[in-house]
User: Fold this.
Amino acid sequence: MLMDPHLLTTFVTVARHGSFSAAAAELGYTQSAISQQIAALEADLGLALLRRRPVEPTPAGRRLLEHAGPLLLRLRAARADVLRTAAEPSHLLRVAATPLAVNPVVAARLAAARAAQPRLEVRLRTCRAERLAALVAEGRAELGLAGGIAAPSDPLRLPESGPMSTAGVSEEDLVVVLEPGHPLAGRARLRLADLIDARWLDTPLCPLTRLRDLVGDGFPVGLEYEGDDVHTVLTLAAAGHGLTLLPASAVPAGGGPVCAVPVAAPRLVHRVELLHAALPPGPATALAAALAG
Amino acid sequence: MLMDPHLLTTFVTVARHGSFSAAAAELGYTQSAISQQIAALEADLGLALLRRRPVEPTPAGRRLLEHAGPLLLRLRAARADVLRTAAEPSHLLRVAATPLAVNPVVAARLAAARAAQPRLEVRLRTCRAERLAALVAEGRAELGLAGGIAAPSDPLRLPESGPMSTAGVSEEDLVVVLEPGHPLAGRARLRLADLIDARWLDTPLCPLTRLRDLVGDGFPVGLEYEGDDVHTVLTLAAAGHGLTLLPASAVPAGGGPVCAVPVAAPRLVHRVELLHAALPPGPATALAAALAG
DNA sequence: CACCGACGATAAGCGATGCTGATGGACCCG
DNA sequence: CGGGTCCATCAGCATCGCTTATCGTCGGTG
Assistant:
């Protein structure tokens, strides 16, 4: 018997909520149905996936959760891809981007492309990096612009979601954002290794886990910010809640309320990548080429 | 509505057979059920996937076929992986290998590992490269040994099938296998570029598509051999049906019935990789480490 | 040219599946 | 100790998906 994706979605929903009833509400079933679905899945596999009261995954359940997400994403991606082959080409191009991905380079290229193709309608939206690949894979956006911190010319690590092309778009130097009164605020350049014990903001724009991956352990959390608003991050940094790393172009000229100091070592950049599934020939392909430069 | 894997398997079976009735026979359904399943899938997606009489995929259907295989494999792989977390560790280790993967280096390491772990039972089977990843992913073998032609220290291109580790095991120089009377048989070394217009055997042990990928177009087919028996390939080469490339150790010392000439350029090797899913700690892990060297 | 056989589509019938709503038992909190 | 919350279970019932039977169509053949 094959694992039914239906049951799999139910399982991940239950695990996410830590509750059968809440999952039932979200999925539009009764609690009884959820209970039966989980029971069916456990019976099929012959082992317990969830411990009840409190509801939390067993080791096997945790394993299944790791598989279920990508699996369901691929399923939706496959569906979207097949439907795309039949869709008539549209003049509307939906572009999804992480907040920092729309930098001056990208904006300029986009403007040039639109000037060259006046009939092209572009709809831009921002979203978190985690959701971007899914958005593009599922066909809810034709183009994705992912921004992230990486070593120069290293690709970003995006969640895999089937056959999807990626191309580098731009790389921009990073600056450390400091409060004006900070002892290091006057420096011309800074080494990250010297800041490993300073307090840092943990934000989606510059996640500390990524920094630790790239540079090494350390980077204690000063304040965690869950939003993606650059202005808020700058304000928090200005108030001394912690340091953060941003692409130079994201900090107002002169620094505004903060001090921006280039990073000397290690060499890190804010890299932007373009991702898209198979595009219909026409304006979409042209725009993709224009953005990739 | 999510695409049901059940329907997807039916679809790929029908496409493979080019027949509803044959698929019904294979899957143990009636022809009517198959017809309804395909109709359901087409209704769900809102487009035709198969043209009837003769039965062959439409463009959208071909697209779906490309997705369906990997998708179903991942589904089975996920199931196998979850079940593995609950299985008690066994002393039986199933190893699947492509024919040339079990070379002297691998055999020796295997012998050493077994000497170190007398309680370890090993069952070895050979299979084609295409099936190997699936076999390991689905848990029908704990370890896989894939052999193939690659540039030195380049990884083999194996079908992706979810979270699976791969490690290089060995690389061995290749020889061109020629019939004894061949004009080039006396040479000390040969350049592949000089053999691009010669007749070649097309065999799973040395697929011409791979050679064309690595070296360039050309390599006309002298004879296609569908089996993986090395002895047969040598016999065919000796009879002048075409050239082929084999790892040096696969040709009997002195050449036997054929002439073996090392390849001077481009540098290509027969590379063996070990692949395995998450292994239980114990003999399996030890053997994997021993094989990886 | 007409027939026959193979194949896929369709209709009707029916059993299995999977939902809802009701109820029961375990646990938590006051 | 009682009420509330949460998941499991049961009975009832609608729906889904299979089988059997039949039809339409295409293609090969006498």
The longest strand of chain A covers residues 165-178.
